Amino acid sequence: MSVKDTAQMVISFGEILWDIFPTGNVLGGAPFNLAFRVNSLGERGIIASRLGRDELGAKAYQQVLSLGLDTSYIQWDEHKPTGTVKVTFAPDSTHDFYIVPGVAYDNIEATDSLLKAAAGCDFFCFGTLVQRSERAKHTLETLLEAASRGKKFLDINLRKDCYTPETVKRSLARADILKLNDNEAGELALMLFGQDCRVVDFCEKIVEKYSLECCLVTFGERGVLAFSNRGEKVYIPGYRVELVDTVGSGDAFSAGFVHAKLQNQPLAESCRVGNLLGALAATTKGATAEISPEEIVSFRMSDLERVIDLNYERYMAQ
User: Fold this and answer.
1) Angle value at C-alpha 282, between 250 and 238, nearest 5 degrees
2) Going by fewer Cβ within 10 Å, which terminus of the chain is more open, N or C?
3) How much of the chain exceeds pLDDT 70, in percent?
4) What is the reported pTM?
5) Do residues 56 and 18 touch, judged by C-beta distance below 8 A?
6) What is the mean pLDDT of residues 144-166?
7) Over residues 116-139, mean pLDDT
């Protein structure tokens, strides 16, 4: 996992928000987590988002600064509040969440500086949640047009009441690389193909239908399956680790994969790096906990038990 002399630019477009727990507030949002993690790997990770002129916005901005991220593309909204998610817990420890609508990141604008950055980026990462508002949806479409030289990475993140079939189809049509989990793959199979199907068949169908470079399906501790438009079929087993906090582990996978692709690594190695970062992140508290290069090397050299999903063993990379 070498670091290039010149960092490459990765724009992560979408939500910065606070998860409001009974025990306190935690800053998050998949695009923010991805930008932080890819930045920590030595690339120039940029979060393109919008905060409200309120106390939560000021605290978020200070935290972004403290994590060493570029704040040049964080906008301020004078009228809408900073994004929040209200999390509630039932007696059986299950949780529910409500992603508050009508917030600052729903109004991200395609400023001249952001358009210029998009035109020069190497990877442009986006999801579906930020597209729930017409304004942010239009901004994203404008930026995707500007980002003609960069790879488009879609981490689809299907959040309750925050996407439509039209949003999903439009996003897939603009993507080069699709990343999703196995539950989301099942949901998309019904939505797009009208039937439940095996993950392997889903990958083949969606890569062909939307002319994707590759499709990545994650299975948590059971690893990742990847299919490319060149006929590659790769499965990388997961790691059995002592879980501390799984929040942000999927975003860490995305960051590791993007970082490896920027180093011109092949599909299998890019999945290995993503898998490794995702597992490591799950052993830390919070989505923005520091993971040092030494920890990454040590983890990779360890003899931790691997978790193999027998459904995909035939595609396991050597």
Assistant:
1) 70
2) C
3) 96
4) 0.94
5) yes
6) 95
7) 97
